[in-house]
Amino acid sequence: MAHAPIIEMHGINKQFGQVHANDSVDFTLQPSEIHAIVGENGAGKSTLMKILYGLYQPDAGEILVNGTRVDIPSPRRAMRLGLGMVQQHFTLIPVFTALQNIVLAKEPRKFGTLIDYQQAEKRIAELAAQLGFDVPLNTPVESLPIGAQQHTEILKVLYHGADILIMDEPTAVLAPQEIEGLFNCMRSLKDEGKSLIIITHKLDEVMAIADTVTVMRRGQTVNSRPITDTDPAMLAEMILGEPVIPTSVQREQTDQTTPMLSMEGITLTKNSDTVRKRGWKNVLSNRDPGKRHLNEINLEVFPGEIVGIAGVEGNGQTELVEVLTGLQHIDSGTLTLNGERVAHIPADRHRHGISLSDRIDDNFIIGHHKKSRYSRKGILQRKSIQRSALNALDKYQIRVGNITHPIKTLSGGNQQKVVVARELEATPEVIIAAHPTRGLDIHAAEFVHTRLIYARNRGKAVLLVSSELDELLHLSDRIAVMYDGKIVGVVKPTETNKQELGTLMLGLN
User: Which of 108, 112, 182, 271 has its CA 20 to 30 A from that of 32?
Assistant: First the structure.
């Protein structure tokens, strides 16, 4: 006997200005099911799930939970209905401990007023052990590696009573070694009767973990079927609406002997004075102010070369990028940059890449607003700015309704493409690209790959930080592997494999 659906969404419509994000979308989730939603950037996947979680309100349509029609005006109402969402950009408070983040707004009390952290810690530790998580609950979230932060988010939604978990790009910030652990967790939750919805671009992962897959394209549902009735090639064709024809870019060889970027003996130590100035007194006792984020880094990047940086998240990659882009100052060593124009594609586009509340066209000129083509005597030249923005939108295939709308109205993938377009169109000599295709669909990721190879072929120096080993092996001329703040190996893609890279990443060599 077939089970009744736990979630039904019928005829969901949602419009942002001229963009029809959801157009009469239907979606059904069965009990104890892992259901993947796939589609290009701007297909409407995240919008649909944000409607289900109460972050957006639909313009039309209805939602049924366990057969009963419901209105979900807020996440609080969604949580009461047993829904929880782990978003692509975590919603944790950095200076709070993992435990404080998990119990926030649902703190257990003793004597009526005092927070009973001991009771909460015992309950959450049992839940973490059941899922195979190793989360130091009394450590500030900002000190935790990305994988542990994601585990904290999952524990948080489960602690608040979620029976249905929505996960937006759950593997986007994880190293390969952490993905299988997440999948094991998802399978355990399914076995316990939980239902999971994952939004993802990674079709191989869909095939590995999902029971059912729904394909969206341009705001509509185009297909929904059991995973056993499809394959990656069929899914890719449904996503794009046409057969997938891989493009190739010829890699040109260069014989440059002078590095464009040189690092010699670069050291960066955790600075407790900075912590004090920022007022995080409660964090100091949990930190090791003498720990080296970067420990004697030696690396060169030559013109016409892509050097990849591999490593499990939290082993110094972030600090390396921050040093190279001026966000942190080194303690010792020599950093040489031969070239004035540096492009920075940041790992966290919301913090370092865009201004969410500002217009789309204005985001195209961040960092370049003083150029004569955009500003004269301190007055922005609107026509010139809009002309450049429209050219970039067309060239980089970015889907928007109106360029005067805030960039937060765009999908995450289209926001990322704005950052990539802005940085690469500035004709940089050195490109620091940190996870440039995180959250991008097949077409968009391939387009970014092509642009990076074009830049390389024009003699630009590219430093590529990525947690995607396939991406590093495909794009890089050399791959440097980081572990515990050190470079523990430099290999050529043609002379290595994922297993060897994984060994280096775990410090087992």
Answer: 108
Segments forming the whole domain that contains residue 190: 7-240
pTM (two decimals): 0.74
Residue 274: what residue type? T
289-336 pLDDT tens trace: 556 889 999 999 999 999 999 988 778 998 999 999 988 999 999 999
Contact 103, 161 (CB under 8 A): no
Q: Which of 197-211, 285-299, 467-481, 483-497 has the lowest mean pLDDT?
A: 285-299
Contact 247, 314 (CB under 8 A): no
Share of the chain above pLDDT 90, in %: 56
Confidence label for 245 from pLDDT (cuts 50, 70 and 90)? low
Q: Of the candidates 240, 268, 299, which is a domain's last residue?
A: 240
- Residue 204 shares a structural domain with residue 55: yes
DSSP output for 129-182: HHHT----TTSBGGGS-HHHHHHHHHHHHHHTT-SEEEEESTTTT--HHHHHHH
Q: How would you label 106-136 residue by residue, b for 16+ Cβ within 10 Å and e otherwise?
A: eeeeeeeeeeebeebbeebeeebeebebebe
Structural domain total, the chain? 2
Highest-confidence range of 14-28, 49-63, 142-156, 316-330, by mean pLDDT?
49-63
* Separation of alpha carbons 94 and 34, rounded Å: 30
CB 16 within 8 A of CB 401: yes
How big is the CA angle at 355 (ends 351 and 358), to the nearest 5 degrees? 165
Residue 101 CA: distances (Å) to CA of 124, 138, 141, 280: 12, 10, 8, 16
Domain end marker among 225, 240, 255: 240
Closest CA to 73 of 59, 60, 54: 54
Query: Is 106 among the domain residues?
Result: yes
pLDDT of residue 81: 96
Instruction: Summarize pLDDT for 266-278 with one digit per residue, the tens.
Output: 999 965 344 333 3
Q: Establish if 278 belongs to a structural domain.
A: no
Residue 433 lies in a domain: no
461 with 301: CB under 8 angstroms? yes
pLDDT in tens, 431-462: 999 999 877 777 788 888 999 999 999 999 99
Residue 126 or residue 377, greater confidence: 126
CATH number at residue 173: 3.40.50.300
Task: Tell me which residue of 177, 145, 193, 249 sits closest to 3, measured CA to CA.
Answer: 193
Is residue 174, in this structure, part of any structural domain at all?
Answer: yes
Question: Angle formed by the axes of helices 176-191 and 498-505, to 10°?
Answer: 90
**N-term to C-term CA, the chain:** 53
Instruction: For residue 476, give every residue at least 6 positions away whose Cβ sits within 8 Å of its Cβ, in sequence order, or none.
Output: 306, 307, 308, 464, 493
If asked whether residues 360 and 217 sit together in one domain, one would say: no
The pLDDT score that the predictor gives to residue 285 is 36
Report H helices in 341-430: 349-352, 360-363, 382-395, 412-424
